[in-house]
């Protein structure tokens, strides 16, 4: 009898606990979850790529009125790192809701592992949750710069060593890979062959998946200033760029070119002029030659074609240009000294219609004819008539 009472009491307690649990459960249903735009069910395996932004769309229905409800998604082992949470909802019973989340997949993953993606709707007390399996893979062809090391300063004419460390972070071998170093806005460029690089997860390959190369780049004859060093790793399947700044102690600018103006307007066939002042900042005299860059649409000349400017002195030259057709023409005159280009004169001319085109000429002729006729008419109207003379008759 006691055993029976004990069993009844235990059942009653479990029933109360079950009802209490059921009563306190969050009153929502997760109707649909989409990952990368594809509807998924619990237990489905979803593929994603390392570093990729994975969009998560959650549709759910409120079965009762609820306050302070949030929707969140995260990846197992990365909670707090790979996680996104919506703003708080005030749910109305019987209403349907859609929440949009996104997760940035981690870069440093083991391709042999799978991960659990949690989608949870919760308030301060209870939650409703679905789970999905995610397998993260890497792009077929990719590489990362683990290090780009060089001095941040250099001088004209010296050799700048640049050490580059590259790792294959893709899924496939990187065959026939090259690295190229370029000093932008100059002609300095150097290329090196890296051969094949095995992928980072290739456990069957004993080759190192990281390659290190030192490239010696000669700094060209450039003006002092800050330049951009561009490093590119590539093969037939991909390319990856990185950049760094470098300060070069170069040739000081000893010639200053000051045009009185850069833009001019002209008519078709009209020759326009620009006055340009050339300042020699060096202590010694310099001989300058002026060479217009070829432009088939313009006739360009300078006067004079050569100047000798004393040290710390200046002189002027005239640039003339004419065009046979309408348009906007940009052109350049190179300034050369000691066989080197020391500057460029950049000018622009906006050319419009001729002074006397056919329509204008006809209009002028008609205006002249009209003016002549008007003068003749005025003369005729203002001329006094002559009195008639009658002969006297005597009878």
**Would you identify the CATH H-level superfamily of the largest domain?**
abc- transporter (atp binding component) like domain
Shape: flat
For this structure, what is the CATH class of the largest domain? Mainly Beta
CATH topology of the largest domain: Coagulation Factor XIII, Chain A, domain 1
Q: Name the helicity range.
A: 10-25%
Distance between the termini: 185 Å
Rounded radius of gyration (Å)? 42 Å
**What would you say the CATH architecture of the largest domain is?**
Distorted Sandwich
What is the structural class?
mainly beta
Low-confidence stretches: 4-8, 10-24
What is the strand content?
A: over 45%
**Main sheet record:** 6 strands, mixed
For the record, the count of structural domains works out to 3
Number of separate strands: 27
């Amino acid at each position: 009898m006691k055993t029976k009472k004990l069993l009844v009491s235990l059942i009653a307690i479990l029933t109360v606990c079950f009802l209490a649990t059921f009563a306190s459960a969050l009153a929502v249903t997760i109707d649909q979850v989409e990952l990368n735009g594809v509807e998924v069910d619990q237990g489905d395996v979803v593929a994603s790529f390392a570093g990729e932004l994975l969009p998560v769309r959650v549709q759910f229905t409120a079965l009762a009125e609820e306050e302070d409800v949030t929707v969140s998604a995260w990846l197992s082992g990365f909670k707090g790192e790979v996680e996104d949470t919506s703003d708080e909802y005030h749910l109305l019973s019987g209403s349907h809701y859609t929440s949009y989340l996104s997760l940035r997949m981690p870069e440093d993953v083991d391709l042999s592992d799978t991960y659990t993606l949690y989608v949870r709707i919760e308030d301060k007390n209870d939650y409703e949750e679905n789970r999905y399996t995610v397998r993260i893979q890497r792009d077929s062809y990719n590489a990362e710069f683990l290090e780009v090391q060089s001095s941040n300063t250099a001088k004209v004419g010296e050799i700048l060593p640049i050490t580059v460390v590259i790792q294959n972070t893709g899924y496939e071998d990187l065959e026939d890979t090259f690295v190229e170093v370029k000093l932008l806005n100059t002609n300095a460029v150097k290329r090196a062959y890296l051969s094949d690089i095995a992928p980072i997860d290739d456990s069957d390959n004993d080759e190192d998946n990281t390659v290190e190369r030192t490239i010696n780049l000669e700094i060209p004859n450039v003006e002092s200033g800050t330049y951009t060093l561009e490093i590119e790793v590539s093969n037939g399947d991909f390319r990856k760029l990185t950049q760094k700044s470098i300060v070069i102690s170069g040739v000081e600018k000893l010639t200053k070119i000051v045009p009185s103006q850069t833009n001019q307007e002209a008519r078709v066939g009209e020759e326009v002029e620009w006055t340009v002042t050339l300042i020699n900042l060096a202590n010694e005299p310099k001989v300058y030659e002026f060479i217009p860059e070829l432009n088939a649409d313009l006739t360009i000349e300078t006067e004079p074609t050569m100047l000798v400017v004393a040290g710390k002195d200046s002189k002027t030259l005239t640039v003339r240009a004419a065009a046979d057709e309408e348009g906007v023409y940009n052109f350049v005159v190179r300034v050369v000294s000691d066989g080197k280009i020391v500057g460029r004169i950049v000018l622009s001319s906006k050319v419009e219609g001729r002074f006397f085109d056919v329509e204008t000429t006809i209009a002028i002729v008609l205006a002249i004819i009209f003016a002549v006729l008007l003068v003749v008419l005025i003369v005729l109207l203002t001329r006094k008539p002559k009195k008639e003379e009658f002969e006297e008759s005597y009878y």
